[in-house]
Amino acid sequence: MGIHTVNTSRWKHLVEPGISLWQQGIERDEIASRSLSAYQVFAGDTLHIVAIEGGQVCDLLFLTSDGRRDSHGIKEIEGQSGTVVFELGTGTQFYSGEALASLRSFMKRRKYDPVGRSAVRLFEDQPLPGVRHGFTVAEDGYCLIAAPSMAMSVAGDHAPARVEVLIKRANPEKSLLRKLPDPLADPLQDIHVPHSSAVSYEVKAGDFIQIIDVSGRQCSDFQALTLRGLDRGRELDIHHTTTRSLMGAAYPAPGLHSKFFNVDQEPMFEVIRDTVGRHDTFGLACFARFYEELGYPGHVNCTDNINQRLAAYDVAPRAGWEAVNFFFNSRTEHDNALSFDEAWSRPGDYVLLRALTDCVCLSTSCPNDLDPANGWNPTDIHVRTYSAKEIFSKSVAVRMTPEAKPTLTRQSPFHSRTSALTGDYSDFGGVWLPASYRNHGTVGEYHACREKVVMMDLSSLRKFEVTGPDAEKLMNLAVTRNVRKLSVGEVVYTAMCHETGGMIDDGTLFRMGEDLFRWVCAEDYCGVRLRELAARENFKAWVKPSTEQLANLAVQGPFSRKALEKIIWTRDCETPLADLGCFRFSIARLHGFDGIPLVVSRTGYTGELGYEVFCHHADAPAVWDAIAEAGAEFGIAPFGTDALQMVRIEAGLVMGHYEFDDTIDPFEAGIGFTVPLKSKTDDFAGKLALQRRKEQGRFKLAGLELDGNELAEHGDLLFSGRAQIGVVTSCTRSPVLKKTIALCRIEKDYAAAGSCVEIGKLDGHQKRLKACIVPVPFYDPERKRVRS
């Protein structure tokens, strides 16, 4: 028997406080709808499969190591409907092409026959979230786990869901957490760095270097010298001060961000990927004196290890080498002291660099076992280099929860169109979005929005499909607006709060049907929050992420209606675009009855007449082309995130991490109108705290007009004399108002229109910018344009 069912009750609380799954040796993965994965398992391993959102069936197939047919197969799970036949080439509508190609490759490499394999189907009669099944593995082999599903429609049918896979190894030495991840491509060099050692290796300009933390929480110093410099008797290594002087940012982004320079100001390396997000780029590699002053003379150290490796290049030894210390969790405190803690890196995390000149490189595995820097237990580092011919996307990674897989910054489904118009991208919510476009520029895009029409990629917005008989109850509990008043076809702008009253996010809620809602926001955590509330209240409701399935494009400006009228078709039972009111939407198609399906809403974030168009990811390029063609006669222009900041500040529209965070309530954020404490009699998350905060709150959102043309920055403090009275949240120069304007959070006693305040620069007192309190919005205060 390949796999046996086991009691899962002892795994109901996997995470001890402060200890993550990977620290317990539990391997975790997620399988999304229409995808599949294969896992090597060994006799005695324990396997758990958990429905994250629910409503997603899962097929489990066990194959022995030699690929033979298991005469017993997989024991049918009690309470399930039976087995299904898992065959390649059939049912392809239930899997993505990438998933099927991956499976065929897996079978081909092992010479397995895929036909007629018997698989167990899970969750078919158990659609609720949180359901789990546990197994023990009786013999070595492979588990193939698939999540078949129809593709989601723009209306939300067949919304995707995920299943969680947890593997606990009977023999920790066989854990994949201890094994190297698969190479990103065919390596040129595969170099292991045992703990407490260093290696040297040469790379050519254009080559890629992947530095991998094998077991997690292990620091690795990186340094390099140009071969050109060594040939001339000069030691041109990565120089921290030069790099900091030339660069304003330390994290990877398209273009010139996150490059490292030598003292000649020659670029040496560019960061391409980073799955951790926390490194030391300003300190020294550990050195002998550091250990000596702790009372450990003779302790092995990275500087001496680097010196030894560079001796062959006739490089003079140093008492302390400057280095980029990957994975080192260091920071500077408010008093300018250097502090550190355990590294953030997990098993298999890495940094990917691209060499910009020929170099000899040094990589260490730090030997520090006297403090938390390496988790008190130094482990190994691994280095791989790849040819300049390879192509790797530029990405940084984020994790939604401590146990989640790192999610790399991804390209928008409109990237094939925007990349032909610009190379200036920024990471906007984990998606590369254009900051500005060639031959337009931020100011040009701004004027196009105010005077003509623009189109903007907003695919970074998170979308969640909330369905089920208790969907209305769930959303009414989760957000501040009265959802019961929302009609089908209506959209409402609202806030989602913690029980403390602090904001999780703001967003728009679409009522797609009586029991169907779509929540559009900026934070992935909203999905986690909704599922937690549903579980707490025992609601029969499902929350499924649809961000990967839905692309959306904002079409904004005075001529947005005329442009879209040319191409948007609606059925007789839907509101035509010409008649679509503010905060309403229609199910539509592109051009006609057989056209691409769309959802078109009269919503926006610019203060102008505008719409948002939602489509399936695969249809995004065609939708972009159609809107660009329809708007050509009206002077349509692409619109980037830099121009968006200008128009949304003018319109007094708030943004997360600027006007609000989880300590700021909607009243302080300037969107108190989203909290109808008197008319919404139902309870909702944070209601008691918000009642108290409204009565006792000290701050409110206000507008500022600055005297002069100097810009304030987010976080600059507001003063009345010596007293601090508020903080600047956003600032821009307004072309239409011909003034510098800002949004601020200020004490109510100082928030009267016409009051004079000062913005502190330098230390807050040596330099002050004078400003005057004004009402918001700055532009079109009666919002006539958006209602036109």
Automatic annotation (TrEMBL):
Stretches assigned to the Aminomethyltransferase C-terminal domain: 700-780
SUPFAM superfamilies recorded: Aminomethyltransferase beta-barrel domain (SSF101790), Folate-binding domain (SSF103025)
Gene3D superfamilies: Probable tRNA modification gtpase trme, domain 1
Residue ranges occupied by any GCVT N-terminal domain in the UniProt entry: 414-678
Pfam families: DUF1989, GCV_T, GCV_T_C
Membrane-spanning ranges: none
DUF1989 domain sequence ranges: 192-360
Name the UniProt record assigns to this protein: Aminomethyltransferase family protein
Lineage, top ranks: Bacteria, Pseudomonadati, Pseudomonadota, Alphaproteobacteria, Rhodobacterales
